[in-house]
Write a structure and sequence with these properties.
Elements (H helix, E strand, L loop, with lengths): L1 E12 L8 E15 L4 E5 L13 H13 L6 E7 L9 H16 L6 H12 L3 H8 L2 E6 L4 E6 L5 E8 L5 H6 L7 H20 L5 H4 L6 H4 L6 H7 L7 E4 L6 E6 L5 H14 L4 E6 L7 E6 L6 H5 L6
Parallel strand pairs: 3-4
Antiparallel strand pairs: 1-2, 1-11, 2-4, 2-5, 5-6, 7-9, 7-10, 8-9
Helix pairs in contact: 1-2, 2-3, 2-4, 3-4
């Protein structure tokens, strides 16, 4: 009888023009510990877990049962502990990290019979798009495509000088609401524009041409339509490069805004002030965080269930204070 602990990274999706196809893992994490039990029990810690179900309707439990079903085994009762530093419904992949963490933990608990690709297919189907889950599962920058049946991906190694600054508004924005803001059709000109920008962005990230990011992160597919939901967003996307950013985008469905930065830039404090002051002028409180791309996906630790060390003691020193 083992306890499986999984540490899974947050993610940012779209990166501007790569709607539902581009994602990058970020240095913000969630931890899930899972073990078989006589009776299902949830131990949820931290502010991000407030309001999360503590019965079998919990997403972690349901995803784990999907893994067991795929593997042809039965583990009907689970003890699950979870702590997350990833804010909910802010565009930083909180649901994707939970799905990936649950898939990986459940798979490891039964001896890892499912391949990484199988976990990716399950995660994509559950999330509805592969960008966030791909980044959290594989780490680095993930270029992906999904036709509704199969997801494919290529992983890119992040440039060693690439860093990000996120501005996280104090309000939540559901993915569903953000998607309702999008039109059902776009023009051929806008489609061609985004194909070009997304292709250029992937090439820039793959080749290390950081100077191209500013031009490659432009978008006509989703950000202009979501701008009304996040006052100050348009100004930030248009002017962040004037304050030292390599480029800027809406992170996922938002409301978090993300700027790509050269780690050696001397203008970091200037950029941070610009983001906060722009949002404050619109009456929006926000906090900023400097995050690095994470090259690895989930970290898995397996220990005997008989060991006495509790969950929070195991992750102490890693969580944000």
């Amino acid at each position: 009888m083992n306890r499986v602990l999984v540490k899974v990274p947050a993610s940012t999706a779209n990166l501007g023009p790569g709607f539902d196809t581009l994602g990058m893992a970020l240095s913000l994490f969630a931890w899930i510990e899972m073990s078989a039990a006589d009776k299902t029990e949830f131990r949820l810690y931290g502010d991000q877990m407030k309001g999360v179900p503590t019965d079998k309707s919990n997403l972690i439990y349901k995803v784990a049962q999907l893994v067991f079903k795929e593997a042809g085994v039965e583990v009907p009762e689970l003890c699950v502990s979870m702590y997350s530093d990833i804010p909910l419904t802010r565009g930083l992949g909180s649901s994707a990290s939970a799905i990936v963490g649950a898939l990986v933990a459940a798979n490891a608990l039964i001896g890892s019979p499912l391949s990484e690709d199988k976990l990716f297919q399950l995660a994509t189907s559950l999330e509805g798009h592969p960008d966030n889950v791909g980044a959290s599962l594989f780490g680095g920058i993930v270029v992906s495509a999904w036709d509704g049946e199969r997801a494919d991906h290529v992983r890119l190694e992040p440039h060693p000088r690439l860093e990000t600054l996120v501005a996280i508004p104090a309000f939540q924005l559901s993915t569903e609401k953000a998607r309702h803001a999008l039109p059902s059709q776009i023009s051929m000109a806008d489609a061609v524009f985004n194909v070009g920008r997304s292709s250029l962005l992937v090439a820039a990230l793959a080749s290390g041409e950081l100077g191209l990011i500013r031009h490659a992160m432009r978008d006509r597919l989703h950000q202009p339509y979501r701008a009304a939901l996040i006052p100050g967003m348009t100004a930030i996307l248009e002017r962040a490069a004037d304050y030292g950013a390599l480029g800027a985008a809406l992170s996922g469905a938002g409301p978090t805004l993300i700027a790509f930065v050269d780690a050696e830039s001397p203008r970091k404090s200037e950029l941070e002030a610009f983001l906060l002051e722009t949002l404050q002028r619109e009456g929006i409180e926000a906090k900023t965080m400097w995050l690095k791309p994470v090259a690895a996906g989930p970290e898995i630790t397996v220990k005997s269930a008989a060991e006495s060390e509790d969950f929070m003691s195991r992750i102490k020193g890693e969580v944000m204070q």
